[in-house]
């Protein structure tokens, strides 16, 4: 079975055909580098010079696909050319084979060729001239340098530039890929942040609206219905205000709108008062002092979501909110009455627990939520450092 050989490049075909036709034309015109009277010419028949010409032209077809094989065969053809009347095109094609062997060959070949051809140049010219004290040998060294060392050195320089350009292109591609990954991660993180903010801002008010509207529809008591409608209206207005504040955050860069204020732990008292207005028995025990803004925002949102969950799911009884600062951490704990099997007073999606866990994780904190006897406990520990806060 004949092994598969890659097709030669179209430029290599042009070089081979052009070199062969040019060499034949010079042969027809009788332009031979060496005359038949020279003693070194063994084959005086001029047509013999066409053999190394044809072989070297054929080797040009291998300059990209098999540069090493092309160089070895071309070297044999050049040796044959030296004992004929010769063809200048054969020499030119051979210099191209040396150049191609360095440019397209293996890295090992590319490294060795300039050294080998340089040594041949010295051994072929300088050493004989020094030993035989005949300066004419220097011309032999110059000829070897022109035919072998010069194209090898040129190929080495071009290859280095090509490799450097390819490495730069790969680095640019990797940089663009990393930038795209960073952009995607940033967009994903921003979408998650917006989802948490939207849930925390609106869920509390909508839950209160759902619970009190259910009470107004199920109880045939004008006074109770009026009180429920008042709570519904209050939560609707506050929910609308929260939505406007969220839009202000999203449009903080606009010239016609100032950024909305970020909630802090100083607003917990107002948050608890709002929960009490919704009918909850909430007790606040806050001893936190001054905390970094990211920690304060996360703690505020966690308490807010915990109160919302208590409004929807907690049994009858008091809800306790406690904040303590100890050992460089802020401990946030919300306890509410818990009775397994109770039906929620308002539907939920479970996104609240996910959002609280994400907020704690972004600050390198800890989050736990689950039943402890007859109480449902939400506990979060947040480090009081702004190092990697997002």
Please provide a written account of the structure:
The protein is α+β, with helices and mostly antiparallel strands and 390 residues long. The chain has 2 domains: 10-173, no CATH class; 262-390, Histidine kinase-like ATPase, C-terminal domain (Heat Shock Protein 90), CATH 3.30.565.10. The protein has helices spanning 10-29, 50-59, 67-81, 88-104, 107-132, 137-218, 222-250, 268-277, 293-313, 351-362; strands spanning 281-287, 318-326, 329-337, 366-372, 375-383. Strands 1-2-3-5-4 form a 5-stranded mixed beta sheet, with helices on one face. Helix 3 (67-81) packs antiparallel against helix 4 (88-104), helix 6 runs parallel beside helix 9 and helix 9 packs antiparallel against helix 10. The longest helix has 82 residues, at 137-218. The model is unreliable at 254-259 (pLDDT under 50).
Count up the helices: 10
Order of helices and strands: HHHHHHHHEHEEHEE
* Structural class by helix and strand composition: alpha+beta
Give me the Rg, rounded: 43 Å
Instruction: State which percent range the strand residues make up.
Output: 5-15%
Number of strands: 5
Beginning-to-end CA distance, first to last residue: 65 Å
Q: How would you state the average pLDDT, rounded? A: 80
Characterize the quaternary organization of these chains: single chain
**Could you name the ranges where pLDDT drops below 50 across 5 or more consecutive residues?**
254-259
Task: Output the strand order for the largest sheet.
Answer: 1-2-3-5-4
Tertiary shape:
rod-shaped
Helix percentage range: 55-70%
How many domains? The number is 2
């Amino acid at each position: 079975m004949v092994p598969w050989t890659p097709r030669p490049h179209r430029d290599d075909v042009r070089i081979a055909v052009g070199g062969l036709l040019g060499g034949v034309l010079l042969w027809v015109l009788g332009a031979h580098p060496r005359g038949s009277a020279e003693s070194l010419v063994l084959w005086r028949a001029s047509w013999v010079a066409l053999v190394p010409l044809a072989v070297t032209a054929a080797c040009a077809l291998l300059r990209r696909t098999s540069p090493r094989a092309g160089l070895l065969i071309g070297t044999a053809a050049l040796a044959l050319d030296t004992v004929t009347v010769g063809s200048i095109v054969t020499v030119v094609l051979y210099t191209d084979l040396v150049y191609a062997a360095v440019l397209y060959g293996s890295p090992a070949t590319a490294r060795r060729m300039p050294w080998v051809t340089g040594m041949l140049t010295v051994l072929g010219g300088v050493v004989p001239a020094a030993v035989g004290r005949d300066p004419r040998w220097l011309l032999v060294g110059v000829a070897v340098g022109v035919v072998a060392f010069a194209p090898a050195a040129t190929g080495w320089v071009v290859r280095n530039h090509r490799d450097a350009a390819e490495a730069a292109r790969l680095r640019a591609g990797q940089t663009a890929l990393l930038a795209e990954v960073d952009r995607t991660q940033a967009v994903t993180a921003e979408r998650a942040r917006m989802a948490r903010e939207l849930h925390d801002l609106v869920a509390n008010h909508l839950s209160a609206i759902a619970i009190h509207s259910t009470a107004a529809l199920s109880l045939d008591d004008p006074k109770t219905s009026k009180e429920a409608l008042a709570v519904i209206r209050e939560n609707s207005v506050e929910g609308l205000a929260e939505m406007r504040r969220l839009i202000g955050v999203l449009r903080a860069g606009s010239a016609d709108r100032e950024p909305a204020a970020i909630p802090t732990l100083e607003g917990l008292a107002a948050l608890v008062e709002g929960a009490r207005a919704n009918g909850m028995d909430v007790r606040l025990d806050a001893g936190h002092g001054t905390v970094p803004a990211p920690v304060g925002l996360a703690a505020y949102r966690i308490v807010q979501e915990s109160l919302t969950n208590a409004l929807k799911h907690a049994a009858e009884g008091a809800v306790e909110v406690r904040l303590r600062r100890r050992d460089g951490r802020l401990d946030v704990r919300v306890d509410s009455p818990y009775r397994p099997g109770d039906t929620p007073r308002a539907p939920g999606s479970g996104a609240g627990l996910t959002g609280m866990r994400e907020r704690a994780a972004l600050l390198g904190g800890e989050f736990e939520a689950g039943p402890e006897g007859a109480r449902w406990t939400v506990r979060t520990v947040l480090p009081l450092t702004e190092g990697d806060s997002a």
